[in-house]
Amino acid sequence: MTKSKLVLMGPDGFVSPHGAQTTVNVAGYYIHTAIHKARPDIVAAAHCHSIYGKTWSVFGKPIECLQQDGCMFYENLSVYENYGGVVLAEHEGNNIAAALGPKNKACILQNHGLLTLGNTVDEAIYLFGLLEKQCQLQLLAEAAAANGIPKKIISDEDAAYNAETEGDPEFVYFNFQPEYDLLLEETNGAFLK
Fold first, then answer.
1. Reported pTM
2. I need a labelling partner for 46 at 20 to 30 A (CA). Which of 39, 105, 150, 188 fits?
């Protein structure tokens, strides 16, 4: 994916001449339009059917605070428990936006995938990558627990402290910068074109 391949589309559904002139993912349109309408505080939404996210989504459960980084999602994660098929109608996008509520920046879409929001594109992407890693960790921990190794879940008090400390949008933005720099280096900036 490169910058030149992104389609700029308004809430009215019309493609702007300032972006790529190509077909639009209808499901993405319904999801993103509903989110931006319900959450004007949000600048970006990231959604994908990543391997660990979609695998964990089959349980229709939130991740647990099993490790320090996962505390970022303490009281900041919802689960959309009603898989309504491919999002090809406005009401399904609205249901997903409602599941996020007024403040959550992450959602596990049951039998579907992950969705994260951000005050910046960087924040939305960082949260998405972090949630994907936490789904992987949760799956590994569940496998170990099924073999008799008990999980130690971080207390609500400690999780709340970590979430408050690390959940500031500026902190999240700056946490993404080393990953952004690496992406620039590895691609020689190709994604900016």
1. 0.90
2. 188
